[in-house]
Amino acid sequence: MSSERRLELELQVAEARANAQACCSCISGSISFIVFTCLAIWVFKGVDDPKSSIQSLYLPALNKTSLDTTTPTNNTLFFELQLSNSNDHWGIYYGNVNLTFYDNPISTRSHVIGNYTIPRFYQGYNKKATKRGAVEVNTTLVSQAFCSPKGYMAFRAEMETVIRFRIQSLFKSKRKKLMRRANVVINEQGVLIVNQDGIKLI
């Protein structure tokens, strides 16, 4: 066999090997992409949004039973918010959690009486976070809130934030906007009427 023919055969073999390697790399990349995509779908399928509830509210200005003469002029609303992550493997990143309180349960008739921002934070899986705060409210609007014959007053609370889910340190989901609300009733002592599970924001 001539040297020219031998060189031609060697070039053909080298070219065939290069094509085979490129094909394997392409197949391997496609398989990796498919596996990663399927894993990501499996990971984030069935993830539950966090549950939120108002555990307590106290508005001294509405406490008609207090003997403290400064109580009627105290325009502070004290609250306790609970955020619960019931997922087994997924942590949750919260953006700033914005709470807004209104003087009427009916949105078309309501006015903002106060708002509060809870700074962003991370919550592990199967964890509960309790956030407490105090808001200065507009007592003029508060005094005009809907009042029952028993002296109970009805308000509305709204929560808005953006969340992301995380599993271990592998994946993070896209950001998701979360909005929740609930009507709350305060009695003649200025205290939220609530059961042991709190008032759920839905």
UniProtKB/TrEMBL annotation:
<dbReference type="InterPro" id="IPR044839">
    <property type="entry name" value="NDR1-like"/>
</dbReference>
<keyword id="KW-1133">Transmembrane helix</keyword>
<keyword id="KW-0812">Transmembrane</keyword>
<protein>
    <recommendedName>
        <fullName>Late embryogenesis abundant protein LEA-2 subgroup domain-containing protein</fullName>
    </recommendedName>
</protein>
<keyword id="KW-0472">Membrane</keyword>
<dbReference type="GO" id="GO:0005886">
    <property type="term" value="C:plasma membrane"/>
</dbReference>
<feature type="transmembrane region" description="Helical">
    <location>
        <begin position="20"/>
        <end position="44"/>
    </location>
</feature>
<dbReference type="GO" id="GO:0098542">
    <property type="term" value="P:defense response to other organism"/>
</dbReference>
<dbReference type="GO" id="GO:0009506">
    <property type="term" value="C:plasmodesma"/>
</dbReference>
